[in-house]
Amino acid sequence: MATIAGSRRLRRTPFSDGVEAAGVKGYTVYNHMLLPTVFRSVVEDYHHLKSAVQVWDVAVERQVEIRGPDAGRLMQMLTPRDLRAMLPSMCYYVPMVDETGGMLNDPVAVMLDEDRYWVSIADSDLLYWIKGLAYGLRLDVLVDEPDVSPLAIQGPKADELAARVFGDAVRDLRFFRYGRFDFQGQQMVVARSGYSKQGGFEVYVEGTQNGMPLWNALMEAGRDLDVHAGCPNLIERIEGGLLSYGNDMNRDNTPHEAGLGRFCSTQTAIGCVGRDALLRVSKEGPVKQVRALRIEGDLPPCDRAWPIMDGQMQVGAVTSSARSPDFETNVAIGMVRMTHWDAKTDVDVVTQAGVFPAVVNETFWI
Amino acid sequence: MATIAGSRRLRRTPFSDGVEAAGVKGYTVYNHMLLPTVFRSVVEDYHHLKSAVQVWDVAVERQVEIRGPDAGRLMQMLTPRDLRAMLPSMCYYVPMVDETGGMLNDPVAVMLDEDRYWVSIADSDLLYWIKGLAYGLRLDVLVDEPDVSPLAIQGPKADELAARVFGDAVRDLRFFRYGRFDFQGQQMVVARSGYSKQGGFEVYVEGTQNGMPLWNALMEAGRDLDVHAGCPNLIERIEGGLLSYGNDMNRDNTPHEAGLGRFCSTQTAIGCVGRDALLRVSKEGPVKQVRALRIEGDLPPCDRAWPIMDGQMQVGAVTSSARSPDFETNVAIGMVRMTHWDAKTDVDVVTQAGVFPAVVNETFWI
User: Fold this and answer.
1) Facing B5 at nearest CB: one of A12, A26, A32
2) Which residue of chain A comes nearest to B136, CA vs CA?
3) pLDDT tens digits, residue range A223-241?
4) Of A44, A72, A208, B97, which has the maximum CB count within 10 A?
5) Distance between CA A153 and CA A161 in Å, rounded?
6) Residue A202 main-chain phi, psi, to 5 deg
7) With contacts defined as CB-CB under 8 Å, which chain B residues touch A305?
8) Taking CB atoms and an 8 Å cutoff, what residues of chain B touch A246?
9) Inter-residue contact A316 to A340 (CB < 8 Å)
10) Beta-bridge mates of residue B3
11) Model confidence pLDDT, tens digit, residues A111-155
């Protein structure tokens, strides 16, 4: 594919100097910011992620800070997940929907205090939706993008590396909980979370100037662990069934279609602006839904939605695909109609390089 | 720079097949969509744009359609430009601001009917802000992204090429007016507008399936005019002082700082949500403002904001820069503080490759 043209509009991150020094080879753009996609090769990065530990510049997970007396009320307006049990120290994966139940983003919300949240967003300007709602409804909240940039530590040796830099107490963090840990005199929010299935942490680095010192400290401390610069890995995230907003679902889809019904409690999510629209689908279920698929053959890159066909009838679309070395097939994510979503259903996938046979898989590869 | 990693999230356009066949060499990402940045070379594209005619895939100028009884009221809420004199057949450049007067986008609004507009957006999800406002204020409007993709015809021979495809009446279009013209039995909205100073048109192509037929017809009809695939040209747009949202201004800036005061009539823009915040700055003027600058030396690509210094004091930042063959200098756009914004003021510009002398220019190069 072509090269990417740099500009201020494609924002650099607090870790960009480290990313470049590590020899980044490919980028995508995410929230108007550069996100690395490959360092050595996607396959080499994949094997390394599964066996060692990587440090990821995921500053593109921009934060929307919501603060003030109406913060909690506004948060519940945004999502069909019931937030009543959420407490400071917790992170929640929260599908966010508009008044039609269409997904606007699928962030992780971090509850910092009773009246203060960070919403760690996927690729859309969720800030604009939240600001519009807050203004239109005259809510007493501040809504802004703070100077906070997540850095992820991912891989089987992530606990060891994090403990060396933040102390052994970080090992006790439970999944989707966060704590505050000292780094060179600064208290940093560290959560057990991340966009891989290999385990690890996300550090919410406050202040651009604190980015490279942490990056360098992790690289230094992890030398004998074979730490490398890495990034979300296309193969690993598809194997693990980690959805990507804009790829696997978008504003056309409900959370239920995206297979996120378990994060919705629409009946009790009182105040959610999409509640009316979602009540019916939450009872009856969706007509199409995300599925894992295996595709056979020598596929081109999945740079567009690939129609899934049964003869002349379209029954869905593949939205992400990659060759898996470990599972020796093309692993894929697609949206499939109810008539064809059962495991072992045979279908055809129409790519820009021809038609390939595929089968609906029982589960993702985890 | 590195390569760009394709994915469905970086959407293709109705014209992508034509763009690829024409040998696109570089992309940026804009509104979650691919925008070509170079075909032959930026300099070759530049000379050609100024002497012949180009067809541009600017589908990234996504439309926000606003329709319904409250459409006009909502439009005026979005901008400090007074829209009372706007009529169907007109396009308006409309800075859009939040409740603090910070710029959220700088689109071109197309008034299709008394109660129907297309807002042709720069690089931010303006749809989310407008949807949030409309929901919060319970306005009777539809707000959505239709299947409409602009294709631009730009260059000194644009009138001739457009006339061959849409008929001679297209020559009579005045600047920022549009008409409906027949193409193969379809009525298409064609406006005299575009992101260059070379003149031309933007065709609002409705329906993805109509993209390549129009692209091919233009390429065919313009063969003896030396028509080429092109794209917004970095050098030409800086020479012409065409601002780029996200590069030259963003949510931190008022329209007045961006030098767009002439498009604001804050006093009479009754209903604009940013009116209170902008009334004072509209009277007293901003403390910093966009300026043209000449920079001497062999500059690196402007992929980040470059501090503008007077000794140890920062007095602004360069946000776009390119080497101009015609003017034999580096042309640049920057935000400069009042103390240093007068023409001929000498300053220093700090880039990633060292410090370079610069001077504030009287005007852009037009």
Assistant:
1) A26
2) A136
3) 999 999 999 999 999 999 9
4) B97
5) 8
6) -125, 125
7) 8
8) 8-9, 32
9) yes
10) A3, A26
11) 999 999 999 999 999 999 999 999 999 999 999 999 999 999 999
**Cβ count near A84 (within 10 Å):** 10
Q: What is the DSSP string of A110-156?
A: EEEETTEEEEE--SS-HHHHHHHHHHHTT---EEE--SEEEEEEEST
Angstroms from A299 CA to nearest CA on chain B: 14
Q: Which residue of chain A has the CA closest to B305? A: A8
Please answer yes or no on whether B2 and A5 come within 8 Å at the CB atom: no
Inter-chain residue contact A4 with B6, CB threshold 8 Å:
no
What is the pTM for the complete model shown?
Answer: 0.97
Measured in degrees and rounded to the nearest 5, phi and psi for residue B257 equal -60, -35
Retrieve residue A51's tokens: 């066996």
**Are B26 and A8 within 8 A, CB to CB?**
no
Closest-CA distance, A9 to chain B, in angstroms, reads 5
Q: Which two tokens stand for residue A291?
A: 């599925």
Return the residue of A nearest to B125 by Cα: A125
Q: Once rounded to an integer, what is the mean pLDDT over residues B251-259? A: 98
**Cβ proximity of A202 and A15 under 8 Å:** no
Q: What does the alpha-carbon distance between residue A245 and residue A28 come to, in Å, rounded to a whole number?
A: 14
Q: What angle do CA A61, A64, A69 make, to 5 degrees?
A: 150
Instruction: List the single best residue of A8, A137, A333 to mutate versus B (max B Cβ within 10 A).
Output: A8
Would you call B28 and A5 a contact, using CB atoms and an 8 Å cutoff?
A: yes
Q: Are strands A26-30 and B3-4 parallel, antiparallel or unpaired?
A: parallel
Q: How many CB atoms lie within 10 A of CB B365?
A: 18
CA–CA gap between residue A90 and residue A179 (Å, rounded): 9
Average pLDDT over residues B276-292: 94
Tell me whether residues B246 and A26 touch, CB distance under 8 A: no
pLDDT digits (tens, 9 = 90+) for A6-20: 999 999 999 999 999
